[in-house]
Specification:
binds adenosine-5'-diphosphate, 20 helices, 6-stranded parallel sheet, 9-stranded mixed sheet, alpha/beta, 36% helix
Length: 491
């Protein structure tokens, strides 16, 4: 069993349903594992977007009501062709739970769907069932791999009733899926599971805690975040449990899509204004800065670096630090191009800054995929002073785009960005700027370092090339998960 068979259970998968990093991981990792030789199938709800994408999906099993609160459902199968290499998708069809518009977790009023425990209880229950002897399918996985709280209850049934080994991956520990105790009966959990070292968490039923307690192994999306979540400051209440299970906990860095994010072919960088470039054709990158300055209404300055930001505007991302010293940008001197949305206070703050410093600071609120690519290409330095970052994608995109990132040393940022100094330049690894404390002063000093380094064109080019040489393809992550599955099975 060199390549264990895997059921990958997820509540989202790009391009059909995506609210965050999990959607991208589900789109890329199973496909990479399949290419590596695993028989892997993805289980996810048959949301409207999937129903539309796969009108010919075939019914392969009718499932009875699996507990008093779980309605009957059915499983359909489809092949995710273009996007994921013919990967089989197992679509959990239960219209009363999943046939809803928009976001998979919240209603139009912004509140969680009131029956989320039932919706994702069913998804978890079916994930477990497919790994058990009672599965209605002939196909049986060696490992059930679940993701975030929405599927993290599956290991409870596998543990208490028997079945496949399990792996749970934490993409964001801040979301835990805690519900009233009464639901344990309604979801058909065995009484034996109601223990402090089972599914119980401070008197509540916690999906994520159940997974972290009961899965055979735990992974998260970067080695540094695997360390950090054992610390009460980052663990959102689960640090003691994670410390207890540290031998079962692994950090595996996410990859990025090297085709979607390639400055040599990116459709967002089409002529006549933007330009394609590569590590050995860096001069062409300059056209992108000018085009971006024009597109965003900045002065076409060539004597100062342009900082770029593409981000959710939330406390996590540390952009309040940038706002606090925004007035001083002309002193560096530097320009700023920001794309983002989120916290109204930050939105208003950045809009006011742009009004105060026209031509030097440009702000666009909203979500704009094309502009995100153009900022990655046109900025000189990409800013990510995040307070915590499980993995982070933008710093990897910016390294690939020859736009050295300035980051805070946390989570996946610490694992991908190597601070520039004499030693790391000599080793050809220095690829960005790392601040080790999250203060306004530290950010200011780091921005001064960036500005000074940028003025030295030869030095800057070395930093750019060190970043562009990094390989963040999914191949590495897939190899590590593959190794982990074998370990789980005791090979
Ligand atoms: P997080 O998942 O915490 O938001 P990541 O860096 O892991 O942060 O991933 C964010 C992804 O969302 C990146 O692909 C980024 O380019 C994209 N993104 C965030 N905000 C915007 C926006 N306003 N417009 C376009 N893309 C955005």
């Amino acid at each position: 069993m060199n390549h264990p068979s895997i059921l990958f259970a997820t509540s989202e998968m790009a391009p059909w349903v995506k609210t965050g990093g999990l959607g991208d991981v589900a789109a890329a990792l199973p496909a990479a594992l399949r290419r590596a030789g695993h028989d892997i199938r993805v289980l996810l709800p048959f949301y409207p977007a999937l129903r539309q994408a796969f009108p010919k999906a075939k019914v392969i099993a009718e499932l009875p009501a699996l507990a008093s609160a779980l309605p009957p459902s059915r499983l359909l199968i489809a092949k995710a062709t273009k996007e994921a290499d013919g990967l089989p998708l197992l679509l959990l069809d239960c219209p009363s739970l999943f046939e809803r518009p928009g976001n998979p977790y919240v209603a139009a009023d912004g509140n969680d769907w009131p029956d989320n425990a039932i919706r994702f209880g069913l998804l978890s229950r079916v994930a477990a069932l497919l790994g058990q002897a009672a599965s209605p399918l002939d196909w049986r996985p060696d490992v059930v791999h679940v993701n975030d709280w929405q599927t993290a209850l599956a290991p409870a049934w596998l543990r208490y009733e028997g079945g496949a080994a399990s792996v749970v991956t934490v993409h964001n520990i801040a979301f835990q899926g805690c519900f009233d105790e009464s639901l344990r009966h309604a979801l058909g959990l065995p009484d034996a599971a109601w223990r402090f070292d089972g599914v119980e968490y401070h008197g509540l039923l916690s999906f994520l805690k159940a997974g972290l307690q009961l899965a055979t192994r735990i992974t998260t999306v970067s080695p540094s975040y695997a360390q950090e979540i054992q610390d009460p400051a980052f663990g959102y209440g689960l640090a003691p449990l994670l410390r207890h299970r540290r031998d079962a906990l692994h950090g595996i860095l996410n990859g990025i899509d090297p085709v979607l994010w390639n400055p040599a072919t990116d459709p967002a960088l089409a002529a006549p204004h933007y330009a394609h470039y590569a590590a050995n054709r860096l001069a062409a990158k300059r056209a992108n800065k000018l085009a971006l300055q024009q597109e965003m209404g900045l002065e076409p300055a060539t004597d100062r670096p342009l900082f770029g930001v593409v981000s959710r505007l939330t406390e996590q991302k540390g952009l309040d630090l940038l706002l606090a010293l925004g007035d001083a940008l002309p002193e560096l001197p530097a320009q700023l191009a920001l794309l983002g949305s989120g916290d109204p206070g930050l939105q208003d703050g950045f809009l006011a800054l742009a009004e105060k410093l026209p031509g030097q600071v440009a702000v666009k609120l909203g979500f704009d995929e094309t502009l995100a690519h153009r900022i990655e290409a046109g900025a000189d330095c990409f800013l990510m002073p995040s307070r915590f970052e499980p993995c982070g994608l933008n710093q990897m995109y910016s390294l690939r785009y020859g736009t050295p990132p300035l980051v805070q040393a946390t989570g996946g940022l610490a694992d991908t960005v190597v601070d520039v100094n004499d030693a790391t330049l000599a080793e050809k690894t220095g690829n960005g700027f790392v601040m080790t404390d999250g203060s306004i002063d530290a950010l200011w000093q780091a921005m001064q370092r960036v500005t000074a380094a940028w003025q030295d064109k030869r030095l800057w080019q070395r930093i750019q090339q060190n970043g562009m040489r990094c390989d963040f393809s999914w191949r590495h992550a897939a190899a590590e998960y593959s190794q982990l599955y074998r370990e789980v099975l005791g090979q």
